[in-house]
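@here heads up, posting the sequence + SMILES for the 2-acetamido-2-deoxy-beta-D-glucopyranose run so it's all in one place. Ping me if the SMILES looks off, I pulled it from an old spreadsheet.
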Amino acid sequence: MIGLPHRFIRVLQLSFTAYLCVAVVYATYHFAKLPWNDGIRSFPSTLRDSRWSSLKLPQSLDFMASYKSSSTVGELPTDSNINAGLLDDKFYWDTSKVALDLGMGHQGRVSMDEQLFLSKAFGVAMGPSRIIPFYYKATSEVDQEDITITTLITSNRFSVFARLVEHYQGPVSVTIHIKNETEHIRELLDSLHGLYTSSPSMSAHVDVHLVIDNFERQFNMWRNVARLFARTDYIMMLDVDFALCTDFRRAIRSSEQVVGKLKEGNAAFVIPAFEYTNASDGTDSSTFPRDKDSLLPLVDSKRIGMFHASWGPGHNSTDYPKYYTSKPGEVYKVTQYQSAYEPYVVFKKEGPPWCDERFIGYGANKASCLFEMYISGVSFYVLSDHFIIHQNHDYEETARKNERRYNRKIYADFKEEACLRYIRMYRSQGLLNTTLAYNVQTECPKIKNVARLFGQLGET
Ligand SMILES: *[C@@H]1O[C@H](CO)[C@@H](O)[C@H](O)[C@H]1NC(C)=O
Ligand SMILES: *[C@@H]1O[C@H](CO)[C@@H](O)[C@H](O)[C@H]1NC(C)=O
Ligand SMILES: *[C@@H]1O[C@H](CO)[C@@H](O)[C@H](O)[C@H]1NC(C)=O
Ligand SMILES: *[C@@H]1O[C@H](CO)[C@@H](O)[C@H](O)[C@H]1NC(C)=O
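bot reply: prediction finished. Complex structure tokens:
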């Protein structure tokens, strides 16, 4: 009586093990098969950075099981893309170098469940969310000192993203959000596969990270995902619908001064944003000006102007009049910062604050990233030879209006709270009177409650 269930369990165990083996073989087979099928020699598929790899099967199969359209046990998903990357779900790191240098700690490797680690890394975001880093990993060698474009895309922006990648020819780290509905996932992974194999530039330069959940959008969390997994020291936070007109990447990298400031971590370089006044002019990026000399006449004739001119505070801190009259090579500091400013900037990946993940939709999300960056001591500098131009498209107007209303309240609270955090931090460190705290000193007293506190502290 007792032996029977045991034997039964044993059979179950064996079946499960067999299932695992078949799954691995199947995944490996498809994984290996893809490159040659697609005719791209070094197609990267889902190979991950070694820091994000290990084998711990049951959980990943759990995940696969939840995405199968059929619930028949033992049936494998037909989309081979799903398998390969998901066999990895442990995060490793070695004993910290500092500890070893100090003669403390023992050489060793620590591992942690990847999902646990990611749930902490994105702990303020709405959950549950399944994050899959390096779903596709680019093949070309990455130069640490390069600038990675970090961006977000949804499936209806694939073609504009392809143009961006083709044009940039440098590292790109992109977050793609997928709604957690089986049909949608399959469909999207199929078109993503199509996109990724559509050009050698894609597989050479683009790292793709997936976020799968039931929420419409969490822009700031997606931004942080793209930044966290960028593989260079510097990143540019960009919206996918901008056309890169000038080669700011080369200009920045070849300027010792600019690189020096980037490296220090308290400067962010603004690439000014423009748009065509007549939307129909702004759809074909091949007609866009490629240098400032061709841009200026279009500005004079009012065919092109600052991006979102109807919402001045979004970009006017860039000081467009100054931009127009700057001499070639000039880099000027933003002196009229205000808290709605949301320029497109190049900055250091590690150091500046991350985007606050409580901003989940339209309105104030990017501004909040830049506000915290600013009061943390990062100043903005405008590269006066460079610019990007928005490619016109239709927005989801109703969603934008509702979410903006919601985020306006959050932003007001956020600014107050962020100011208090930084004031306290700099005060504790005895840095409140230093240049590092200059932005906090000038910006935060604009908020009534914070001004009162400043008064009480006798700091202003
Ligand atoms: C996705 O949906 C599946 C099936 O409904 C569910 O089991 C899983 O927990 C969901 N995952 C997330 C991240 O929402
Ligand atoms: C915008 O451009 C289109 C096509 O060139 C033209 O037909 C239209 O009149 C323009 N609209 C304005 C407001 O200039
Ligand atoms: C930007 O626009 C705001 C509101 O329209 C205005 O108050 C501010 O002076 C402008 N700043 C600059 C630098 O033009
Ligand atoms: C900061 O500087 C002001 C003016 O120089 C001075 O009154 C104040 O005591 C200083 N505060 C700190 C914390 O050093």
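MO: Residues 79 and 314 are 43 Å apart (CA to CA).
MO: One more: The chain is about 45% helix and 15% strand.
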